[in-house]
Amino acid sequence: MNSKILKLDAPYNIIYAGGKIGRHMATLMTWEDDADGGAEVFEAHQYPIIDQGEECPAGTLVWEAELEDCRVICSAGDPRVHLRWFARIVEFDFQQEVPVEAGYIWERLSRLGVSMVWDKGKTDAGEEYEENCYEVSLNFEGGLDRLWVKSNIWDGFCFEARGTRREVFHALNYQRNTYEGLFHQHGLLITFKTPDGWEQDIVDALNSHQHDIEDKDDIV
């Protein structure tokens, strides 16, 4: 097997790589030569080498994900991520075998100095301000015994849950409370809606008991 480390130039991209978040500082390339002496290259792979910041030493090799399975979050030269692109990253994380969840992703991004770009509104006087209230649309599929719900990430946040109605309620409530806790300094408030009115009682319970994660008798 042949290998080579390709060092990258700053400013580095900040990437999601196999459940890890870091500055993409280099790439390890591995490949096999043609056994017959030809010019062909076989079994070529590329793995990111990252700097996770703060307490983590720079130079972590991420074997868990090849480069094509990683996602760029933003540039370290402009460490800002738009709300909806962050939602895309969380959605991508949900698709992994072992998701690390939004709280961990934002914790690591914060340690790398990344800030959030919020939606902007304007006052009657024309002054611009950051939005802090978001209504997220939930789409339900399934039946009484098993539900699958996903949010419309263009509303600003990624929510996803599977299970019984009670399990879905708790998962969505936990995710919402996580987001609001992460951005409490912005006074973030998330409410829900369902476009077709299906499972409206779950939506109503979420909106009526935003920080109550105790068992609900009306969610069965």
Written description of the protein model:
This protein starts with a strand and ends in a 12-residue tail after the last helix. It has 4 helices and 14 strands. A hairpin with an 8-residue loop joins strand 12 (147-151) and strand 13. The model has no long low-confidence stretch (mean pLDDT 91). The protein is α+β, with helices and mostly antiparallel strands and 220 residues long. Strands 1, 2, 3, 4, 5 and 6 form a 6-stranded antiparallel β-sheet that branches. A 4-stranded mixed β-sheet has the order 13-12-11-14, covered by helices on one side. The chain is globular and about 70 Å long.
Radius of gyration: 21 Å
The main sheet comes to: 6 strands, antiparallel
Which regions have little confidence, pLDDT < 50, spanning 5+ residues? none
- Gap between N and C termini, in Å? 57 Å
Strand content: 35-45%
Q: What is the H/E order? A: EEEEEEEHHEEEEEEHEH
**Mean pLDDT figure:** 91
Percentage of residues assigned to helices: 10-25%
Count of discrete alpha- or pi-helical segments spanning 4 or more residues? 4
* DSSP E strands, number: 14
Q: Structural class of the secondary elements?
A: alpha+beta
Large-scale geometry: globular
